[in-house]
TrEMBL record:
<feature type="transmembrane region" description="Helical">
    <location>
        <begin position="38"/>
        <end position="64"/>
    </location>
</feature>
<dbReference type="GO" id="GO:0000428">
    <property type="term" value="C:DNA-directed RNA polymerase complex"/>
</dbReference>
<keyword id="KW-0812">Transmembrane</keyword>
<keyword id="KW-1133">Transmembrane helix</keyword>
<keyword id="KW-0240">DNA-directed RNA polymerase</keyword>
<feature type="compositionally biased region" description="Basic residues">
    <location>
        <begin position="12"/>
        <end position="30"/>
    </location>
</feature>
<keyword id="KW-0804">Transcription</keyword>
<dbReference type="InterPro" id="IPR024596">
    <property type="entry name" value="RNApol_su_b/EpuA"/>
</dbReference>
<keyword id="KW-0472">Membrane</keyword>
<feature type="compositionally biased region" description="Basic and acidic residues">
    <location>
        <begin position="1"/>
        <end position="11"/>
    </location>
</feature>
<protein>
    <submittedName>
        <fullName>DNA-directed RNA polymerase subunit beta</fullName>
    </submittedName>
</protein>
<feature type="region of interest" description="Disordered">
    <location>
        <begin position="1"/>
        <end position="30"/>
    </location>
</feature>
<dbReference type="Pfam" id="PF11772">
    <property type="entry name" value="EpuA"/>
</dbReference>
Length: 90
């Protein structure tokens, strides 16, 4: 019986709390001005991805593979890797 008496009180308290929370006047939100436009953010992220990929290639080829790190960026190196994977003999 005691729980039945508490439920209406809780409901009334919730209603009162919601009424207090409601703003009396709504302000018009000012549009948010972004420092960097979205298109510029996308370009920056793509550039960072390319830089990270090339640095990873150079570290992997130069340090792990014990080759010249700049050779990892040459087309002839990649052509040789493609030929090995496909199975063409040159």
């Amino acid at each position: 019986m005691a729980t039945e008496e508490k439920n209406p009180d809780k409901k009334q308290l919730r209603k009162q709390h919601k009424e207090k929370k409601k703003p009396k006047e709504k302000r018009a939100k000012q549009p948010r001005r972004r420092i960097l436009p979205i298109w510029l953010r996308i370009i920056i992220v793509l550039l960072l991805i390319i830089i990270a990929l090339s640095v990873g290639l150079m570290i992997g080829y130069g340090v792990v593979g014990e080759g010249d790190p700049l050779d990892a960026l040459k087309w002839s190196t990649w052509q040789q890797i493609i030929d090995v994977v496909i199975g063409e003999s040159g």
